[in-house]
Specification:
Oligomer: single chain
Strand content: under 5%
Number of strands: 2
Shape: elongated
Structural class: mainly alpha
Helix content: 40-55%
Largest sheet: 2 strands, antiparallel
Radius of gyration: 30 Å
């Protein structure tokens, strides 16, 4: 066996070297070994705890700031605290969506990133409608505090 660098001008090794059943492209179709298993070397992309913890904490603080003034009506400052809580909750939701997108997750009903498919307009309309109703109800409830 040769341990040094290979000479690039050597004759290519083909079937003529005496390797039965081999072609220049690999083994014949009849001799494919089925015991081999392909394993993905890259780990699955998942949201880690250090990515989820700040999102969950921000969402919890924002929802508590939004819920307590609405539930107990703490005077004139309640509307301001509730709107700040709503803002923090929306920031946490956006942060979570962007982190999930970076990992490769998609919203149900929408195509995966880079697939080249166009999203269905009915699914987009449903998501926009649900978000608009939630924001309208939140703003309406805060406006009723005054």
């Amino acid at each position: 066996m040769e341990a040094g660098p290979h000479d690039t001008e050597q004759q290519p090794r083909d079937v003529v070297d005496g390797a039965p059943g081999l072609s220049p492209d690999g083994p014949d179709d009849q001799e494919i070994v089925t015991d081999e298993v392909e394993v993905e070397l890259r780990p699955a992309r998942k949201l880690r705890i250090w990515q989820l913890a700040p999102i969950v904490v921000l969402a919890a603080v924002g929802s508590l700031m939004f819920a307590f003034p609405l539930a107990f009506g703490t005077g004139e400052a309640g509307a301001v605290v509730a709107m700040l809580g709503l803002l923090l909750s929306c920031c946490a939701a956006g942060w979570g969506v962007m982190a999930a997108r970076r990992v490769g997750y998609t919203w149900p009903g929408l195509p995966s990133r880079g697939s080249g498919e166009r999203p269905d307009w009915r699914v987009l309309a449903l998501y926009i409608g649900v978000a608009a109703v939630a924001v309208a109800l939140a703003v309406w409830r805060v406006a009723r505090l005054r």
